[in-house]
Amino acid sequence: MAGGPPILGYFAVWYVINVAYNYTNKKALQALPAPYLVAAVQIGAGILYILPVWLLGIRAPPNLNRKELLALLPLGVIHAIGQLVTVLSLGAGSISFVNVVKSLEPFFNVVFAMVFMRDFVPLPVLLTLVPVVVGVGIASSADMEFTWLCFACAMGSNIFFSLRGVLSKVTMKSIRPEANLGPANLFGVLTIIAFLTALPIALLMEGATASRAWDKAIASGAQPMQLACTIAISGLSFYLYNEVSFLALDAVDPVTHAVGNTIKRVILILLSVVAFGTQMTTLSAAGSTIAIIGVFMYSIAKAKIPAKKKAA
After folding, report:
1. Which phi and psi angles does 2 have, rounded to 5°?
2. Which residue stretches of the chain have pLDDT < 70?
3. Which pLDDT value is given to residue 309?
4. H-run or E-run covering 144
5. Per residue in 212-221, pLDDT tens?
6. In angstroms, rounded to a whole number, what is the distance separating the alpha carbons of residues 78 and 118?
7. What is the pLDDT of residue 118?
8. SS3 104
9. Cβ-contact 15, 240 below 8 angstroms
């Protein structure tokens, strides 16, 4: 297939950058347990990438009017809160457990799609989510690093990122074609709004203790420049893996999309075990496997639903 190599390249880059984000993010949080500030800096790092891309003409910038910008403000706030709780969850638990809980994201996608888009999924497709719920339940009960904070924040990540995805589809219908707001530019705009939202929250929650936390990290053996670079790389890789994922998933059919997402989650669980020595009991591994297989089954089943014709 002529398009094979470029598509494989997209997926390879997506996986590599995604692994880089999760690895550097966990390393940063282990050295500097200030998740609110780390998350805010990570979001802000994306601005250092997207603004030069627009200003240098590498990509045409969006051309939004006031009404369109106001419509995107809630999405940026939701994106900010989603990233904040995601980093909180990764700081409170293992990468593997967070990814198992985040396998429940399709469940929330279904709920929000029904509420905001009147998009109802057939019962046989809904039933494929049962193994996901069961698998997450088993993995949660048996996980050796389980904490309620990690579980709650990972669930919050599911809620906010699912809500962002569904509301983005609804909002994009009201954006003019000449506004030049494709998926990549949309993510850039949401990143700017999210940073302006996340920074005040981070300063409120951890601003008073930030200097003390940094000094403690350095006293514990962290190198200042290395720690700063780790946080910066985690932020840049967070932005880039999202952008590359748009290119990868835009270039393939829904079934390949499902396979790609499933493989990504497996890779991250393996990263947690290999790079951070996360211990998984037999029951926890079984629950994780059931949940991931359930997500794959759901994605395949949903991909086979014929596109509904919209009423005039």
Report:
1. -65, -35
2. 1-6, 144, 248-259, 261-262, 306-312
3. 41
4. none
5. 999 999 999 9
6. 21
7. 83
8. coil
9. no
Residue whose C-alpha is closest to residue 91's, from 162, 1, 27: 27
The residue assigned the tokens 């999760």 is 22
For residue 209, what is the DSSP state? Answer: G
Counting Cα atoms < 13 Å in the Cβ hemisphere of 172 gives 18
Q: What is the DSSP string of 14-75?
A: HHHHHHHHHHHHHHHHHH---HHHHHHHHHHHHHHHHHHHHHTTSSPPP---HHHHHHHHHH
- Give the residue among 309, 222, 273, 243 at the shortest CA–CA distance from 27: 222
> Distance between CA atoms of 237 and 159, rounded to whole angstroms?
23
- pLDDT for res 310: 39
Cα dihedral 304, 269, 148, 137 sign: positive
Q: By the 8 A CB rule, do 281 and 119 touch?
A: no
Distance, in Å, from the CA atom of 89 to the CA atom of 216, rounded to the nearest integer, reads: 22
CA distance 113 to 96: 27
**Structure confidence at residue 235 (pLDDT):** 94
Nearest-5° Cα angle at 242, 302 to 299: 10
3-class DSSP string for 109-130? HHHHHHHHHCCCCCHHHHHCCH
238 is written with which tokens? Answer: 């967070």
Of the candidates 113, 116, 139, 137, the residue with the CA atom closest to the CA atom of residue 125: 113
DSSP, residue by residue, 152-195: HHHHHHHHHHHHHHHHHHHHHTTS-GGG---HHHHHHHHHHHHH
- Sequence letter at residue 110: V
227 neighbors 14 (Cβ within 8 angstroms): no
pLDDT value of position 201: 97
- 170: closest CA among 184, 193, 159, 186? 186
Predicted pLDDT at 69? 95
